[in-house]
Specification:
The protein is built from 10 helices and 6 strands, in the order βαβαβαβαβαβααααα. By secondary structure, it is an alpha/beta fold. Helix 5 links the parallel strand 5 and strand 6. The longest helix has 18 residues.
Length: 216
């Protein structure tokens, strides 16, 4: 198996250099391209077709969320990890809807970068622990203020199991193989889960899972 090929997009040269140093401590990882603005990120992604793209959310000319949207639309196999100074849920929702697989705070990059890249490279989702905690706290407070029950409690034991596997990024076939059921059975469970939780796509399901503390 070849090296994991990584694109780094950030408008600060020192940040890019620091990330390259951290990432290439892994012998099986290689930074194959760098970009300092969002438009160049898209061009580089299309040219070198990396496995993982690490993008700053606040890049000039084209922000990281829009760059993610353009990259994933054209090359859906690229897994994007967003870097941000913001833990606000609005930014996270936008990133997920654009197609990002992870969302990491810049101030935790020195400790979370390797884990984040490894997770999204494996097809999973990744969120900085601080982001996950903020979202979980906000979610619990919202339920308390509204005096409503958590829809998650309506899921069966098997549905909760499949819910987590979907949120972690596993395909229907992978879940079916793991649970020794048919892909059609998994798809039926997926439909029931979306209906019970009132979510409409994979991005919303992942967001729900982070809010609920099922994944982090």
């Amino acid at each position: 198996m070849g090296k994991l090929r990584i694109l780094v997009g950030d408008d600060h040269t020192l940040v890019r250099q620091g990330f390259r140093k951290i990432l290439e401590e892994r012998q099986d990882w290689e930074v194959v391209a760098e970009a300092s603005d969002g438009r160049d990120v898209v061009r580089q992604a299309l040219a070198v077709q990396p496995d993982v793209a690490i993008l700053d959310i606040g890049m000039p000319l084209l922000n990281g969320i829009e760059a993610t949207r353009q990259i994933v639309r054209r090359l859906p196999t690229i897994r994007v990890l967003i870097l941000s100074m913001h833990s606000d849920e609005a930014y996270i929702i936008q990133a997920l809807k654009a197609g990002a697989r992870g969302y990491m705070l810049k101030d935790s990059a020195d400790t979370d970068l390797i884990r984040g890249v490894g997770a999204v490279a494996a097809g999973k989702s990744f969120f900085s622990p601080a982001v996950a905690k903020v979202m979980l706290d906000d979610y619990v407070r919202h339920l308390a203020e509204k005096g409503i029950a958590d829809r998650f409690d309506s899921l069966s034991e098997r549905e909760r199991e499949i819910f987590q596997l979907i949120a972690e990024g596993h395909s229907n076939k992978a879940i079916a193989d793991l649970l020794s059921v048919s892909p059609a059975t998994v798809e039926t469970h997926r439909a029931h889960i979306l209906q019970k939780l009132d979510v409409h796509n994979a991005a919303e399901l992942v967001l729900y899972a982070v809010r609920r503390g099922v994944i982090s």
